[in-house]
Write a structure and sequence with these properties.
This protein is of the alpha+beta class. Helices cover 43% and strands 19% of the residues. Among the domains are: 38 residues, no CATH class; 100 residues, no CATH class. The chain has a 5-stranded mixed sheet, covered by helices on one side. Strands 7-15-14-13-12 form a 5-stranded antiparallel sheet. The longest helix is centred in the first third of the chain and has 22 residues.
Length: 478
């Protein structure tokens, strides 16, 4: 049995070496695995265990020392604070029988939660809401609060809801929606783990090199509405590639997927102005439901409907709640009239609502989609009198653009703390031969795209993003 009664060090203690025999290793690992840096053999025949004793030399811990110091403004105090938090996690891990090393995702998560908990307590010295609003907290800071509050919901539900609202406000001003804040958190974690060269990041770099034959220098985050890719991988040789990441919270076999977007929401959340079918859809919806006296009387909306152009510009096109007075009142009345245990309420014929606007416009919409139009549309220098053919060209153009911009793809799955991944090389866009509009009762309208290769056929969805018939028309390429 090894006992260290007293250890006197002058200066900064960064690590210590312990010499021991083989049969003592298990006991030492149980005592010191949270500090373990190296195990090897000494020239004397004994084994040697090096223990890292400082948060200066541990890159992972030092990263959070710096984060704490952003609040404390005193590096020595910050190191002592991190040390106390780290030791408390070590003790808790011992009690729970959890391996105390960075290679264990469970221990790593305990440490991060403890650190973030301290940062959040620091922020709540004053009113939490006031602190966030006054300091204009960044997306990164808000996301850390979200993770902490989700793991510590007791007494923090109000704060969690407040953080969610703040994140959505930021997301609606430029950050891609998709899976919302989960996507943003995941992408930032991927970037930080790779750039900080954590254990996960080192493995990712190695696997990336084996697949793409390129060595990563650093990674930058690029997921905004102005770009159609998520991450920029910059290589040691100066080259770079644009990468699209598609993630899923649930664990599944990544190698059984036929495409990177198979488990994702869509490849593109298209803007209504880019697809002629959106305005046609809105026009028929407006005539059949918005200006329908029977529907308005049933809902109880006595405000006169806005003009079609105002309704289309303010309620249909933005990725937001309705902005017209009529639209705001309509949504409030619909949700109040058919309130159903907090279930999502809209004009989709579900959860007790007797109206499904999609079924109401079904016949007219499909008829106008398939017929030759009186109006002539000029698109990219080509004249079209057929909505179907024009839409086919628009889908092809947008698809070509988004697929060309992505050099590589990565699919991920599972919990953020232990993310699994798969690499894909560049994928070219499919050539569309024909399209068809499909609709079944009680569902969204689907545009089926027929391609040269049958197995490459895909679908686009025309739907409402903020409640059926309420606001935000979306055209998703899947």
């Amino acid at each position: 049995m090894i006992e260290i009664h007293e250890l006197i060090i002058k200066g900064k203690l960064e690590y210590i070496n312990i010499y021991y025999s083989e049969d003592e290793e298990k006991e030492l690992l149980n005592k010191f695995d949270g500090f373990l840096m190296y195990i090897g053999n000494s020239k004397s025949g004994y084994k040697i265990m090096s223990l890292r004793m400082s948060n200066v030399t541990d890159k992972y811990r030092n990263h959070y020392v710096i984060k704490i110091n952003e609040k404390e403004k005193d590096i020595n105090k910050s190191r002592m604070m991190e040390k106390d938090l780290y030791n408390s996690v070590i003790e808790l891990a011992k009690q729970k029988g959890i391996d105390r090393k960075w290679s264990n995702p469970e221990f790593k998560k305990m440490y991060v939660i403890k650190i973030n908990g301290y940062l959040i307590i620091y922020a709540t010295v004053k009113c939490f809401k006031q602190y966030i609003e006054n300091n204009k907290s960044s997306t990164e800071e808000l996301e850390k609060y979200k993770i902490y509050f989700e793991d510590n919901k007791k007494g923090n539900t109000g704060k969690l809801n407040f953080v969610d609202i703040q994140l959505r406000k930021i997301n609606n001003k430029g950050t891609k929606s998709g899976n919302g804040t989960d996507e943003t958190i995941r992408l930032k974690l991927i970037r930080d783990e790779i750039n900080m060269k954590t254990e996960w990041g080192i493995k990712f770099r190695k696997d990336y090199y084996e697949f793409y034959e390129k060595e990563i220098d650093r990674v930058e985050l690029k997921n905004t509405n102005k770009s159609h890719y998520d991450l920029l991988f910059i290589h040691i040789d100066g080259t770079s590639v644009k990468c699209e990441e598609k993630g899923n919270k649930e664990l599944y076999d990544l190698y059984k997927s036929n495409t990177p977007w198979e488990k994702a929401v869509q490849r593109l959340n298209g803007k209504p102005d880019d697809f002629i079918i959106c305005k046609l859809f809105a026009r028929i919806w407006y005539d059949k439901t918005i200006c329908n006296d029977d529907i308005n009387n049933l809902i109880g909306n006595n405000i006169p409907p806005p003009s079609f152009e105002e309704w289309y510009d303010k309620d249909c096109k933005p990725m937001a709640n309705p902005k017209t007075l009529w639209g705001i009142n309509n949504k409030k009345l619909i949700k109040g009239k058919w309130l159903n245990n907090k279930k999502k309420i809209s004009l989709n014929g579900k959860n007790g609502v007797p109206i499904d606007g999609r079924d109401i416009i079904h016949e007219d919409f499909i008829d106008k989609f398939n017929n030759i139009n009186i109006n002539i549309n000029n698109y990219c220098g080509i004249l079209f009198t057929n909505t179907k053919q024009l839409l086919k060209c628009q889908i092809q153009k947008e698809l070509d653009n988004i697929m060309e911009e992505k050099d590589i793809w990565i699919t991920t799955c599972g919990p953020i703390i232990n993310l699994k991944y798969r690499f894909w090389k560049k994928i070219n866009s499919e050539t569309i031969l024909d399209i068809d509009l499909i609709h079944s009762k009680g569902s969204d309208f689907i545009i089926k795209c027929i391609t040269k290769k049958r197995e490459k056929n895909f679908e686009c969805y025309l739907r409402w993003g903020k409640g059926c018939g309420l606001s935000n028309i979306r055209f998703d390429i899947r």
